[in-house]
Design brief:
two-stranded antiparallel sheet; alpha+beta; two-stranded parallel sheet
Length: 222
């Protein structure tokens, strides 16, 4: 990628800027055509085609993360290193960004290394987890072999219950903490007879979704 294009992408997420490598004649045309192919592929892989002409400061947090990832892909990086890419994102955008990274790993064969503080998101999306404390690796293996109540207590000083995630069948950490007695106060009395209570129907909204997007946004690692 030329320095001119790199400067443009630092301020805008446009990948259709005019310019390219400073080479004259047919060589310049071929080089720019090759760049456009790479950039189009990066936009397509991250679902950011519609953002190509918008300024970065106009985008939401989730859109910005996608654009940064697209910029890395445009440099044809085989290894992506991301530090807390879900910080400051709402839960929907967190799942969306991690689903994208999962797609890049499983479908495109790219190596993705992510620093996450949310254990449940890490367990759902990672095939390999490295737990660290005070700069040292204390455990490294599949999520089910690393995350349990004992490791959470050792690593975070937190009492917890670790159960099977009913969706992905990965470890699901439920914090207990020191205020769990407050939870007991809000629990329904054991003697309460629920037999005469009317069950509330559960309503769902079904809508067609693109199959490739659904696979990319899958909440569980393959």
């Amino acid at each position: 990628m030329s320095e001119h294009l790199a400067r443009r992408t630092r301020t805008r997420c446009s990948f259709s800027t005019q310019g390219g490598t400073a080479i004259s004649g047919n060589s310049a045309s071929r080089a720019w055509a090759a760049e456009r192919v790479v950039l189009s592929a990066a936009l397509g892989a991250t679902g950011t085609e519609e953002l190509a002409e918008r300024a970065v400061d106009e985008l939401s947090g989730g859109q910005r993360q996608r654009v940064w990832i697209a910029m890395a892909l445009a440099q044809e990086a085989e290894l992506l290193l991301l530090e807390e890419p879900t910080t400051f994102l709402d839960i929907a955008h967190q799942i969306d960004v991690l689903g994208l990274l999962l797609h890049l790993n499983s479908d495109q064969g790219r190596t993705v290394v992510v620093v996450l503080r949310d254990l449940n998101l890490a367990c759902r999306h990672a095939s390999h987890v490295i737990a660290m404390r005070d700069g040292r690796i204390v455990a490294a293996d599949a999520p089910s072999d690393v995350i349990d109540a004992e490791s959470v207590g050792t690593g975070f000083g937190l009492e917890s219950l670790v159960i099977d995630d009913p969706i992905c069948h990965t470890p699901l950490v439920i914090p207990i903490g020191s205020n769990h007695t407050q939870c007991d106060a809000h629990a329904a009395p054991a003697h309460l007879d629920r037999s005469d209570q009317q069950e509330t129907p559960v309503r769902t909204l079904a809508r067609p979704i693109d199959a490739s997007f659904a696979r990319r946004s899958s909440p569980c690692s393959s």
